[in-house]
Design a protein that fits this description.
seven-stranded antiparallel beta sheet; two-stranded antiparallel sheet; 10 helices; Coprogen_oxidase_aer_sf; coproporphyrinogen oxidase activity; Coprogen_oxidase_aer
Length: 298
């Protein structure tokens, strides 16, 4: 296990992604370093009200604690109460244009320790796409990029992580997916440290290839207020998931992380309407029927 190599990679990934996004957007990300009283800290890179991105956060954190928070030990209750070290890069991008989807990426590393026992480490993360208007070309491209990233490790990883993503990014209280998915994994130790780390890097390194071509295709499309209203309404689902179900958000809050950095994932403008149903046959209705459903995109 080499935690320093993981940290070095994550910091380079943050820089690489920010550089790529700035080239696409034409704006500049704010750099905001912070420290955590209990141990550790991070670097938040944030852009708001820019040319393409209404809000974007690309955050690095490396924190320590005396007791693993419940959200981190939910799948491994035998580790509850151990000391921990956690580091990762997490991003959420909310574009202005309703035809450009919101996207999320997270890659992370945990190590839980207890005196007299061997440390327990694992990797987690993934990326998923949340469109407001459906384009099959975009969905196929996103999933193909995820598949190609995992292909060197064997043919079974993409379908396994795709199904995991579909299960995880699901609003149970509404019985609907958050978006069209992608890949998601947690508690990854497969093949030992070097292999699990390589798989995690493959996901992180493929993000710009997965997302930027979609942005380039859609960012100049004209949109109207009706489409903006639909985007804001559907963003409400994003907020609901992050605050009710997302383990990353819960871990950050439970571990006394920096609230501003955790909640930069929230869209700057959002709305809720009671029992709203789009007109039959509309592009909005097609998003729900043809895209926000269990589907094989390859």
């Amino acid at each position: 296990m080499d935690a320093l190599a993981v940290k070095t990679y994550l910091l380079s990934l943050q820089d690489k992604i920010v550089t790529g996004l700035e080239a696409m957007d034409g704006g500049t990300f704010l750099r905001d370093s912070w420290e955590r009283a209990e141990g550790g800290g991070g670097i938040s890179r944030v852009i708001e009200s820019s040319h393409v991105l209404e809000r974007g956060g690309v955050n690095f954190s490396h924190v320590f604690g005396q007791k693993l928070p419940p959200s981190a030990s939910a799948g491994r209750p035998e580790l509850a109460g151990r000391s921990f070290e956690a580091m990762g890069v997490s991003l959420v991008l909310h574009p202005h244009n309703p035809f450009v989807p919101t996207v999320h990426l997270n890659v992370r590393f945990f190590c839980a320790t207890q005196e007299g026992m061997d440390p327990v480490w694992w990797f987690g993360g993934g990326m998923d796409l949340t469109p407001y208007y459906g384009f099959e070309e975009d969905a196929i491209h996103f999933h193909q990029t995820c598949q190609l990233a995992l292909q060197p490790f064997g043919p079974d990883w993409y379908p396994q992580f795709k199904q995991w993503c579909d299960r995880y990014f699901f609003l149970k209280h509404r019985s609907e997916p958050r978006g069209i998915g992608g890949v998601f994994f947690d508690d990854l130790q497969a093949g030992g440290f070097d292999n699990a780390f390589a798989m995690t890097r493959a996901i992180g390194d493929s993000f710009l290839d997965a997302y930027l071509p979609i942005v380039q295709r859609r960012k100049a499309l004209e949109w109207n207020q009706t489409q903006r209203d639909w985007q804001c309404y559907r963003r409400g689902r994003y907020v609901e998931f992050n605050l009710v179900w997302d383990r990353g958000t819960l871990f950050g809050l439970q571990s006394n992380g920096r609230t501003e950095s955790i909640l930069v994932s929230m869209p700057p403008e959002v709305s809720w309407r009671y029992n709203h149903t789009p007109a039959p046959g509309s592009a909005e209705a097609r998003l729900l029927s043809d895209f926000l459903c269990e589907r094989d995109w390859l």
